[in-house]
Design goal:
Elements: H1 4-25, H2 32-37, H3 49-68
């Protein structure tokens, strides 16, 4: 049985998946530049808990720099969603 926080996190993941799937489903409506700029990636790293926390902190700092940057010209702008998850994975699990 999942804890309350576990159930909440599953709900967050479902929303994040739905957003990404919605983008893919609507890809015909996006300009090629947006499709080329979109990124779906995953990376398997070998870290300890402190390293994983440092990575998350550094990624958050990068995102904060982009949040603070002046906005682009209105005709070149769209809301951009960045979804991040960092979590440990057992050695035998597929990356």
């Amino acid at each position: 049985m999942l804890s309350a926080i576990g159930l909440y996190l599953l709900g967050v993941l479902e929303v994040q998946f739905a957003r990404a799937a919605g983008f893919v489903e609507a890809s015909d409506s996006w300009a090629p530049a947006w499709l080329e700029a979109a990124n779906f990636s995953d990376y398997r790293l070998r870290l300890d808990p402190a390293g994983m926390a440092a990575l998350a902190e550094e990624l958050d700092a990068v995102i904060q720099r982009y949040r603070s940057a002046p906005p682009p010209a209105a005709d070149a702008e769209a809301g951009v969603l960045v979804q991040l998850q960092t979590f440990p994975q057992a050695s035998g699990e597929q990356a």
